[in-house]
Amino acid sequence: MMVVRTLIEHKEQQTLSSVACRSSMSRGRKIEEDPCPVRTVFQVDRDRILHCKAFRRLKYKTQVFLSPEGDHYRTRLTHTLEVSQVARTISRALGLNEDLTEAIALGHDLGHTPFGHAGERVLNRLVPGGFKHVGQSVRVVEILEKEGRGLNLTREVIDGIARHSKGSGPLQAPEAADRPATREGEAVRLADIIAYVNHDLDDALRGGLVRSSDIPPELTAVLGRRNSERIGVLVGDVIDTSLNAGGKIVTLSPDFAEAVLALRDWLDEHVYRAPGVDREFDKAARIIEELFGYFLAHPDQFEVFGHSRRPDEPLETAAADFIAGMTDRFALNLYRKLFFPVPWKPF
After folding, report:
1. HD domain location, by residue (predicted)?
2. Which of 346, 172, 151, 184 is nearest to 258 (CA)?
3. 20 to 30 A Cα–Cα from 193, which one of 7, 85, 171, 324?
4. Where are the alpha helices (DSSP H) in 37-75?
5. pLDDT, tens digit, 9 for 90 and up, residues 72-119
């Protein structure tokens, strides 16, 4: 069966771009393993991420709207799948390694907190040294999964996860050390913002938070009016611009990069921080803060509620790991259990 993997690796050598990351040239894993007879190292990584518990929990973590009742709003899981689709389309067109791209995309948000960025902001304030979901995603795959053993992923996948986020900064990090080491990682970094500015706008329109006529006309003139049109235009521009750059970088052209960042800023003002949305996230933030304080005061309760804390681990780290791994509904239910009074019933 060893011939199956070697055939795939040989095909990569023959068909991928000269700037693509080939499976046979991976920098390997922290802990060496015998190779899989039928899958390349990046295919193994993709499958490990897909089957891990943190990935399944993304189904019940907020993307934009807190625990949405409608069946068609995105969650952190559907966001992840849309990022993967966009990134794979870009990678295929540029002759990059789709398996590496997919592994990075599927793992990029594993460390996201419940209640979206509201939860992240609270933990960032409470945890000594701060808290970022990017670093937590790396921590999930390196340490927390598989009862503390981690997933032992390749260095290329971990690098792509660690450098996928732009935050409020530019699409291309100014410092080389902050940019992904592979073109596949660059594809995921762009696919992330292409996916979320479009699907978050789509959800906001569906939820009646904004109307199509509210979108600045200078943005629709560049990006288009429909979700599919905007994604198609942006993906096409990434492919054209990157090919024209000779594969040295995966990027958007300046005009489209400017439009994407402008749309991101517009969403921040009119969707992410809209009064009706922000009010509920303020409540969620208090839940995160009170849960954090509870476990600092009651460290014996970690295992009672399903979290294994290592003996030498700071309490703040254990609390952040536990809370960041919670789904929205788990955090809400645990909060009720810990802080809501139970009505007295006569015997």
Report:
1. 76-197
2. 172
3. 324
4. 41-50, 53-57
5. 889 999 999 999 999 999 999 999 999 999 999 999 999 999 998 889
Indicate the number of domains in the chain: 1
Task: Kindly write down the DSSP assignment for every residue of 207-236, as one continuous string.
Answer: TTSS-GGGS-HHHHHHH-SSHHHHHHHHHH
Q: Answer yes or no: is 24 within a domain.
A: no
Domain extent for 179: 41-327
Within a domain: 170: yes
- Return the DSSP state at 112: P
224-270 confidence digits (pLDDT tens) = 999 999 999 999 999 999 999 988 899 999 999 999 999 999 999 99
CB-count exposure of residue 183 (10 Å: 0-12, 13-18, 19+): buried
Q: What is the pLDDT of residue 168?
A: 66
Decide if 131 is inside a domain.
yes
3-class SS at 323?
Answer: helix
Instruction: Take residue 282 and report the two structure tokens written for it.
Output: 């303020």
- Contact yes or no for 260/171 (Cβ under 8 A): yes
Q: Which CATH number do you get for residue 301?
A: 1.10.3210.10
Using CA of residue 28, residue 183, residue 137, residue 227, what is the dihedral sign? negative
Give dist(CA 41, CA 11) in Å, integer: 15
**How many CB atoms neighbour CB 308 within 10 A?**
13
Whose tokens are 């990134």? That residue is 87
Which DSSP category does 75 fall into? B
Distances (CA, A) of 113 to 61, 109, 136, 140: 7, 9, 9, 12
Q: From CA 203, how far away is CA 210, in angstroms rounded?
A: 9
SS3 149: coil
- With 0-12 / 13-18 / 19 or more C-beta atoms within 10 angstroms meaning exposed / middle / buried, residue 195 is buried
